[in-house]
Amino acid sequence: xxxxxxxxxxxxxxxxxxxxxxxxxxxxxxxxxxxxxxxxxxxxxxxxxxxxxxxxxxxxxxxxxxxxxxxxxxxxxxxxxxxxxxxxxxxxxxxxxxxxxxxxxxxxxxxxxxxxxxxxxxxxxxxxxxxxxxxxxxxxxxxxxxxxxxxxxxxxxxxxxxxxxxxxxxxxxxxxxxxxxxxxxxxxxxxxxxxxxxxxxxxxxxxxxx
Length: 210
Fold this sequence. Notes:
Blueprint: E1 2-6, E2 11-15, H1 24-31, H2 34-42, H3 52-55, H4 62-65, H5 71-92, H6 98-108, H7 111-120, H8 131-135, H9 142-160, H10 162-173, H11 175-182, H12 189-201
Antiparallel strand pairs: 1-2
Helix pairs in contact: 5-6, 5-9, 5-10, 6-11, 7-9, 9-10
């Protein structure tokens, strides 16, 4: 049995019998491009992902391939994320003062949260890194995942506009937003520890239950 799988750019005929261990969804993922996969996971149209390839290029990939990294999009996405969260807090919680809004916003836009959002999208598998970074497993580091997540926000903002990126961000944050708004003064010691360990030791924290 054969199955023809089509993407926006090409079609590929695969023998299902030659790949018995793969489900159809996994076969589609083999030939689909990152922008298509990510668009589906984010619930937006493919044509709203025009700059997504650039958003997934780590700086270590640039010298080897001569393409721009995602750093400019990361810079923009960071600002867009701050605006979206600040606006949502302002509009949905008129009783909240400036200090508590700032605390709630900070707890939602930090590296730990962004890395967690990236992992839910399996973003690490889509990031292009240089050979050295790939061997070192850099794509799973919280800082790399967080930067790529912000770059994706920047790409969606430029390609699809503010309303689209706002919907994406708020859907990803989900219950986290309500929890942060409900208790903005709570200290997130786990996030602080994760960020400190990543910065000082260049690796994520591993938690074990005893």
